[in-house]
Amino acid sequence: MKTAALKQKSGGEAMHVLFWMTAALLVLMAAEGESYSDNCDGSGLCGCCVSQNDCRNAFARYTDGTIYSGYTSRVSGHCTAIFQCDGSYPSVSGAVLKQQFLHIYQNQPCQKCGSHAFNGNCEATLNYCASCRDSGNPN
């Protein structure tokens, strides 16, 4: 009887360890696989200091026929239009990026700041920015 109880206890402990190892693995996988999502978030200054017109002008500064394949931002007034990806960047035309930014206003619908996830690991973001300059290539 003592042997059966010991085996049962060992099996229970093994299951307990397996459970916690699985839980830890899932947490690590979730942290590594963070993905972008559509939202209307942004700086706390979006409400007072950013106009939708500035944001529209910022993303209009992406050039239709130009291919963007790395972090890029375009600025107008106090709004920055950011193209960023988690991991590798696809080659995306300025015309396609403009549609991704437009999605923030037409489909979500945000008033000023926000982000739109696309292509699995990329994001088009409109946000408040003070004293910012365009960045990324081509510039």
TrEMBL record:
Signal peptide: 1-33
Keywords: Signal
Pfam families: MU117
Superkingdom, natural source: Eukaryota
Organism expressing this protein natively: Ceratopteris richardii
Name of the protein in question: Uncharacterized protein
